[in-house]
Amino acid sequence: MHDLLYTFGKELGSKGSRRLWNHKGVVGALKKRTGAGSVRGIFLDMSELKEKLPLDRCTFTEMRNLRYLKFYSSRCHRECEADCKLNFPEGLDFPLDEVRYLFWLKFPLKKLPKDFNPRNLTDLNLSFSEIEEVWEGVKDTPKLKWVDLSHSSKLCNLTGLLNAESLQRLNLEGCMSLEELPREMKRMKSLVFLNMRGCTSLRVLPHMNLISMKTLILTNCSSLQTFQMVSTNLENLHLDGTAIGQLPTNMWKLQRLIVLNLKDCKMLVAVPECLGKLKALQELVLSGCSELKTFPIRIENMKSLQILLLDGTSITDMPKILQLNSSKVEDLPELRRGMDGISSLQRLCLSMNDMITNLRIDISLLRHLKLLDLKFCKNLTSIPLLPPNLEILDAHGCGKLKTLAMPMAILKHMEKGHASEALFITSFPGSEVPSWFNHRMIGSTLELKFPPHWCDNRLSTIVLCAVVAFQNEINSFSIECTCEFKNELGTCTRFSSILGGGWNEPRKIDSDHVFIGYTSCSHITKHVEGSQGHQKCVPTEASIKFKVIDGSGEIMNCGLSLVYEESNHVVIEGDSDGTSSGRALSVVESTMSSATRLLSVVLRYLWLGVVFFSVFGFARFYFH
């Protein structure tokens, strides 16, 4: 029905020559300028243009009723081509004052023309443009609510937006020449969202109190050394990858803060004790803060805390509540009260902590804990009891680990009569690849073609699946997957992964089984980033082959999914029919990290998962 209405709307608009979206019709109107006064909307897909289109500076002069203007690319939204395909060799006159929506990808000029009047403008998008400032001077923009200037690498001046007091969202991601924000931005009392991710030249934030702001993203602002409060109503604060050395002591005022991300703040040497007063905080990320040596926060008072990540820090004096070693009898009552205070934790990461040797029994009081990350805790020898609802225990690199309790989740399944003998290494009885795999094929081979930019820094995981038919099989077989990726420039990378099997002793399987495994993409992305085609807009061909080694089982079906990590969710690319379309489908909306969300999806299709082996030979334990 939506397609039908869309087609009907296009036909209706075309008859009156009031809205133009067919690229041939748009090009004709721009060149000839016939009937310009009746044009209200122009939508041009620039990927349809085979060559650059030079236009006269007076192209838009007669379009006095133009309200909607969109120059975009359906093939690639990135800056893969050096210049915009629309060329104005003599400059551009733009004497328009009725425009509500202006979307101009890769706008070719240093600023919007002086004669443009944005009094009715509501939505402005000039991403990947050549602008150095939005327009000359300050203009009245009483209706402007949304501005996207992302990846405009030459932008250095925002004074043109100072009268945009109704502005709600401002996206400045990747504006690498922007050194500061104007002090007058404090008048933007309606601003809810500010994204400055990757503004590598940003040095300081002005003093301001933006009372409506809920989300502030300063990720990878590598020149930012100090942070000061910009709003007491913040809910999401991302300072990861900045050069800040400490946080302000008035952070306790952020009583609505839900997410505080300080990942990879390499210069951070201390966090204030007052963070323990943030009653609404659900996620605290300190991963990779290598200079952080103390942790004075009383987390037992943070009743809402769900995610706590402390891996990659230099913390030596961990709070008692996080010292998971078996404790003295006289300390147990206090520690149990503390455990009750953090019972809302869903994910706890204490990896690379040499102080942990044996987990305390009262860790089982963390009844909501789903992921416990203890990787590379080199002195950990025993895990006598686990939380009742734990789904993921990451203990790879724990070379001294000898004792591992059976998870309560498995005990519950056994009490219900489920056998665990045939359920091993991410496998379960079945004859079909689960429907959430985006690429599925009958047989043992997948031949795929991925779109440009499929392997960017958001790619976090490749999930592999094989369905194997058995007939009273008794052997020590294993399932191997060989992957080869090759792009049009000749760059090629290969790797192999074991999806299942490989036991020391033969086991009997008398039904078809589904094997699911995942692999980190770091070795793939590093290879691609080092190639000459990393920034080029080229597709990639992939050949994925599965086979049974040392056994007579037959691969019946196979599947693959690419999983991408976004700022607040995980997406799986492609269509469910096995073709790649580049559309994104949200998998799980939660506050958990990408690994937890992904594996929650995987484990939905498993009865039990006992041991998950990664490509690099580390053991991980997953329970559900």
Keywords:
flat, 18-stranded mixed beta sheet, disordered C terminus, C-JID, mainly beta, leucine-rich repeat, Leu-rich_rpt_3, 7-stranded antiparallel beta sheet
Would you give an account of this structure?
This protein has 624 residues and is mainly β. It has a domain at 427-606. Helix content is 10%, strand content 25%. The strands form 6 sheets. The chain has an 18-stranded mixed beta sheet.
* Global morphology: flat
For the largest beta-sheet, the strand count, sense and barrel status come to: 18 strands, mixed
pLDDT averaged residue by residue: 78
Distance between the termini: 41 Å
Put the structure in a nutshell:
This protein is mostly beta strands and 624 residues long. The chain is built from six helices and 35 strands. It starts with a helix and ends with a strand.
Secondary structure elements and their pairing?
Layout: H1 2-15, E1 19-20, H2 23-32, E2 41-45, E3 53-54, E4 68-72, E5 86-87, E6 101-104, E7 123-125, E8 146-148, E9 169-171, E10 193-195, E11 215-217, E12 236-238, E13 259-261, E14 283-285, E15 307-309, H3 332-341, E16 347-349, E17 371-373, E18 382-383, E19 392-394, E20 403-404, H4 408-415, E21 427-429, E22 439-442, E23 445-450, E24 459-469, E25 473-475, E26 478-487, E27 492-501, E28 507-509, E29 513-520, H5 522-529, E30 540-549, E31 554-565, E32 570-573, E33 584-586, H6 594-603, E34 611-613, E35 619-622
